[in-house]
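tool_call predict_complex ligand=NAP
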Amino acid sequence: MDKTQLGGTGIYASPLMIGCWSFGGGQGSYWGVQEQSDVDALVGEALDIGVNFFDTAFGYNDGASEISLGKALAGRRGEAVICNKIQVQPREKLGSYRNMIEESLKRLGADAIDLMMIHWPVADAALLRANFEALLDVRERGLVREIGVSNFALGALALAKECGVAVAANEFAYSLMSRGIEREILPSCHESGIGVLAYMPLMQGVLAGKYASVGEVPPMRRRTVHFSGAGNPESKHGLPGADLEAESLLAGLREVSRDAGIPCGRLAVAWLLQKPGVASAIVGCRNAEQLVENAQAAQTRLPPDVALALDGISKPLMDKLGDHLDIWQPLESSRIW
Ligand SMILES: NC(=O)c1ccc[n+]([C@@H]2O[C@H](COP(=O)([O-])OP(=O)(O)OC[C@H]3O[C@@H](n4cnc5c(N)ncnc54)[C@H](OP(=O)(O)O)[C@@H]3O)[C@@H](O)[C@H]2O)c1
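tool_result ok
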């Protein structure tokens, strides 16, 4: 698979990025049990076919995702680009920031993290600034190669710039169901040379044609603002959702898929990757089979009429959700700025 340069950095990454949130998961974790043998097989296959970009986080299964990815990359670390994410640390922990990054490196079995991100911004600008200073320090020491952000809108991106951080990439929810980023953030990142890494491109399987209707989507995968919270104990947003628009999008997607002869999930990923400014789509893969299908998706070029049809069927949901960027929270408690 072809690689492209990420931002102005020396990183060359594939358009398919492997989401590692499920890696290392055990009984009771968000994604349930994830066998290491499946991770080994999918990571090996990914590298064999030229998919080199991996997305993990300190918080994914409390470090077990990093450990699992590290095991799967044993002997092939040099072929991979690792993106890792750390939450903003409180002031009292900033003194041990370097130590925290070193612990992560041990979990990953790596000597440096290629792309280190702040996972979510916080409202306290002074604290965010202090965290960027800590990141710049570990970068200076060679523990981190490039700095990125995740879930940062224009205000927080401007703050990063003020701190002297050259942001390489911004990870954001972006899919046929979550298009809020198109209004300002995507064009702005594109103009500034910040690669957008689109997360949840399949809406956790919903856009892969896994479910015949919204009602079939498991409660954990229905806790975003797209879906009504009523009767769903996993949902915390308390909003009415947009089930009708979501249902009609799914029906439209099935129709486009039938007409174009392209599977739903492939349409969803290929549509994203044709949007100017999107560097990679981060797809959570559970096994080698899904990886291979998602790699096909990332290499599919949609004819213009198909891309336009997808723009059309997803517009009513986009209009209904309006400025919703934080897909888990009501607007008034959005963490994104
Ligand atoms: N920065 C952030 O705040 C943030 C937030 C969320 C996610 N992320 C990142 O983005 C990644 C992707 O998000 P996600 O995993 O939540 O959602 P996703 O990529 O939209 O969906 C992943 C799920 O879709 C299903 N799937 C994948 N490939 C498939 C295929 N070819 N055919 C059928 N089903 C397929 C699998 O479901 P089954 O398990 O049912 O097989 C898989 O678990 C995460 O792993 C994480 O790295 C970042």
